[in-house]
Specification:
The chain is of the alpha+beta class and about 425 residues long. It has nine helices and six strands, in the order αβααβαβααβαββαα. It has helices spanning about 5-10, 40-50, 50-70, 95, 125-190, 200-235, 260-280, 325-390, 395-430; strands at about 35, 75-85, 110-120, 240-245, 285-295, 305-315. The strands form two sheets. A four-stranded antiparallel sheet has the order 2-3-5-6, with no helix packed on it.
């Protein structure tokens, strides 16, 4: 018999992708539901994805980072304490000689507690640049998560249409089983009347078992896909929930709106902020400082009394000679920006290839559908004529089932091509970032 090949050519095409099935439980969104739409599945997957937690955590992390950077404008305060004993100190007696002037001896033990306070006045724009770096990095991370969410939606899209193909193939197979049962009754009557050989009836029974075996394979594959979808949608799935075939989507040839483009832009902004930080590091830094303490000796090092003392002032720090280091660092930043442009060009090329592939698929399936309908009409007529020949004993059951399986394959291709055309259209919209 030639019937064994139709399964691999037809039915198996439906579930070759290890994707998920879309039968959601009636508790989805807390509302009873008898069927699912593609848009509902996309929204559910996006809403319930753990990736949303990553966005919230990123925003919270940014708030802490900006607050930490902002503390650089606050005064820096440090406390110190010291107690020391020296084996000798400054002795003025030999210096003064026989002059009738005496200086108190500086004590060998010294004690003091003091605090240093420094206040940034002008940092050359370093804090502003650091904040810009963190903000751009955070936005790049968020848009990267959005890109991952788009990838999740593409999985959902493929899975939804994969399930539609699976269920449509199962429906076609069920119809074929019913047709086979009706024709088996005719053959059984022919066998009982001695017109047909009993082997023809055995062949039909064996073929029915084979059909049911393939139907069981589809059901088992569906059960596996249900488990996968339960994870993707974070929902309890009901096997009895129906799927709505999406309508023909509108055609979008406008600008592509992929989140990856925003990632590239924010990465450029971060690099530009890095360049600003390098410039700021070359600028002079102004600061105010003060010191307040208590102990001995203070600034009056000959005083033997414990006393308080303080000082205030302003200062400048400027490392104006860095031997071309800043210039080289800026050149590195420029090269990194050029590398981003190259990566974007590569991304554009790959995306264009995918978009063209989906457009080609749409055109291909449109042309195939025009032929499928005519092929199916011819195959139905041939299979019907073959059954008449079988009942008249003109052909064998092997020849008959060859034509029946050809009709079944034609029907599968016709139904599958309709769904595949829709899948290509929605995949194109997802690649464009429109849904």
């Amino acid at each position: 018999m030639k019937h064994a090949g139709f399964i691999q050519k037809g039915i198996y095409k439906v579930w070759v992708f290890p994707l998920c099935m879309f039968f959601l439980h009636s508790g989805l969104y807390g509302q009873p539901s008898d069927s699912l739409t593609l848009s509902l599945c996309l929204q559910t997957a996006e809403k319930r994805s753990p990736l949303n937690d990553e966005i919230a955590l990123s925003e919270e992390s940014l708030a802490y980072k900006l607050k930490n950077i902002g503390t650089n404008w606050l005064p820096a305060i440090g406390t110190n304490a010291q107690a020391a004993y020296f084996s000798e100190t400054v002795d003025f007696s030999k210096v003064m000689g026989n002059l009738p002037v005496s200086f108190p001896a500086i004590p060998l033990d010294q004690y003091k507690v003091w605090a240093d306070i420094n206040q940034q006045i002008f940092d050359g724009g370093m804090i502003k640049a650091q904040k810009s770096i963190e903000k751009a990095s955070n936005q790049a991370d968020i848009h990267q998560v959005e890109a991952e969410l788009l990838g999740l939606k593409q999985q959902v899209n493929n899975a939804y249409f994969s399930l539609l193909l699976t269920r449509k193939s199962a429906d076609v197979l069920q119809v074929s089983i019913k047709d086979l049962q009706e024709r088996k009754k005719v053959v059984h009557a022919g066998v009982e009347n001695g017109i047909l050989l009993r082997e023809n009836l055995f062949a039909m029974e064996a073929e029915e078992l084979r059909y049911r075996q393939r139907l069981l394979e589809l059901n088992l594959a569906g059960q596996q896909l249900i488990k996968v979808l339960s994870i993707l949608l974070d929902s309890t799935i009901n096997e009895n929930t129906g799927l709505v075939l999406p309508s023909e989507p509108p055609v979008f040839d406008s600008k592509t709106e992929r989140p990856e483009y925003l990632v590239f832009e924010q990465q450029k902004s971060r690099l530009q902020a890095n360049s600003d930080l390098i410039t700021a590091s070359d600028m002079p830094k102004l600061f105010a400082f003060s010191q307040a303490g208590y102990g001995r000796p203070g600034y009056n090092f000959v005083s033997q009394d414990l006393h308080g003392y303080y000082s205030v002032g302003v200062g400048m720090k400027w490392n104006f000679l860095n031997y071309g280091d800043s210039k080289r660092q800026k050149k590195i930043v420029e090269l990194q920006i050029d590398m981003l442009d190259v990566k974007r060009k590569i991304f554009d090329d790959q995306l264009d290839i995918q978009l063209e592939a989906e457009k080609t698929n749409q055109s291909k399936y449109s042309e195939l559908l025009a032929q499928d309908e005519e092929i199916l009409k011819l195959r139905k007529a041939i299979a019907s004529a073959s059954f008449a020949k079988l009942t008249n004993g003109a052909i064998t059951s092997t020849e008959y089932f060859s034509e029946v399986n050809s009709e079944l394959l034609a029907r599968l291709q016709f139904e599958n091509h309709k769904i595949m055309k829709l899948q290509a259209a929605y995949s194109y919209l997802l690649l464009k970032g429109k849904i």
